[in-house]
TrEMBL record:
<keyword id="KW-1133">Transmembrane helix</keyword>
<dbReference type="GO" id="GO:0020037">
    <property type="term" value="F:heme binding"/>
</dbReference>
<feature type="transmembrane region" description="Helical">
    <location>
        <begin position="125"/>
        <end position="150"/>
    </location>
</feature>
<dbReference type="InterPro" id="IPR052372">
    <property type="entry name" value="YpjD/HemX"/>
</dbReference>
<protein>
    <submittedName>
        <fullName>ABC transporter permease</fullName>
    </submittedName>
</protein>
<feature type="transmembrane region" description="Helical">
    <location>
        <begin position="35"/>
        <end position="54"/>
    </location>
</feature>
<dbReference type="GO" id="GO:0017004">
    <property type="term" value="P:cytochrome complex assembly"/>
</dbReference>
<feature type="transmembrane region" description="Helical">
    <location>
        <begin position="60"/>
        <end position="78"/>
    </location>
</feature>
<dbReference type="GO" id="GO:0005886">
    <property type="term" value="C:plasma membrane"/>
</dbReference>
<keyword id="KW-0812">Transmembrane</keyword>
<keyword id="KW-0472">Membrane</keyword>
<feature type="transmembrane region" description="Helical">
    <location>
        <begin position="210"/>
        <end position="229"/>
    </location>
</feature>
<feature type="transmembrane region" description="Helical">
    <location>
        <begin position="175"/>
        <end position="198"/>
    </location>
</feature>
<dbReference type="Pfam" id="PF01578">
    <property type="entry name" value="Cytochrom_C_asm"/>
</dbReference>
<feature type="transmembrane region" description="Helical">
    <location>
        <begin position="236"/>
        <end position="254"/>
    </location>
</feature>
<feature type="transmembrane region" description="Helical">
    <location>
        <begin position="6"/>
        <end position="23"/>
    </location>
</feature>
<feature type="transmembrane region" description="Helical">
    <location>
        <begin position="90"/>
        <end position="113"/>
    </location>
</feature>
Length: 264
């Protein structure tokens, strides 16, 4: 009962905050405090739902939907911590909506779906690094898409009504590369910990996940290195980032979907 109540409160708070922020982008500035209060409620109840989930199953079942709910909580947290920065406010409705969808999915699918895992301290460290990396790299991808969107609006002169609320392109790009760099470093650490301490990376059920994850890591790393070495930026950097994110999603969530849903 408590789990369901907290889930409903979090979903309602997320969706209400998304609606208010969407209206704010085309209207007055008076609703920002209300949306911030809803953000705090949504984040707190979302975290409480995850804590209850882990308390009940003892971290044995870390399935696709629980993982997605953890990543969307991190996305929402990182976005909310930026406060009223225009770039963050523009993305927040989409991120909050995604968080609400992840909570709905987690509530509908039993916690015991999927194969159990052996949550050793090393595996917990690996998972924590991987989740943080995934959240930062996903957020970087969101900012990259936003960069393309705002650039197109400004070029086509269709942003007249929103011009005062649109974030500066250079500000979006700087934050995009900061997130990309931080996420790539964390992904590197997650892979290093996995290779050193975990012995099932090239097992039959893990091989495709390992290959796709390594391809994603090489792709993200190449973007960061070429950016700082040769000045890669703009649309090309965003397109490469979207491609790398696709590899990462296929590597983790694709394998989880097959293992937890199709084979579980």
């Amino acid at each position: 009962m408590i789990f369901t109540t907290l889930t409903v409160i979090s979903i309602v708070a997320y969706l209400s905050g998304a609606v208010i922020l969407s209206q704010r982008m085309a209207g007055p500035n008076r609703m920002l405090r209300r949306s911030l209060a809803l953000s705090v409620v949504a984040l707190f109840t979302h975290f409480a739902v995850l804590a209850l989930q882990f308390t009940e199953n003892g971290l044995v079942y870390l399935n696709l939907f629980t993982t997605l709910a953890m990543i969307t909580w991190l996305l929402s947290l990182f976005n909310t911590l930026r406060g009223d920065h225009p770039a963050s406010l523009l993305l927040r409705p989409a991120i909050f909506s995604l968080a609400a969808v992840s909570l709905i999915a987690m509530a509908l699918v039993p916690a015991y779906v999927g194969r159990p895992v052996d949550m050793t301290p090393i595996f917990a460290l690996h998972i924590s690094l991987a989740l943080l990396a995934s959240a930062l790299l996903t957020l970087a991808t969101f900012y990259g898409v936003q960069l393309l969107y705002v650039n197109r609006l400004l070029k086509t002169r269709s942003a007249k009504a929103l011009s005062e609320r649109l974030p500066p392109l250079m500000s979006i790009e700087r934050y995009f590369f900061r997130l990309l760099t931080a996420g790539t470093i964390l992904l590197t650490l997650a892979i290093v910990v996995g290779f050193i301490y975990l012995d099932n990376w090239f097992a039959t059920g893990q091989l495709h996940k390992t290959i796709l994850s390594l391809l994603a890591w090489v792709s993200f790393g190449s973007i960061v290195v070429i950016h700082y070495w040769r000045g890669l930026r703009g649309r090309l950097a965003v397109y490469y980032t979207i491609g790398a994110s696709t590899l990462l999603i296929l590597g983790y969530f694709g394998s989880r979907f097959v293992r937890d849903i199709l084979l579980g």
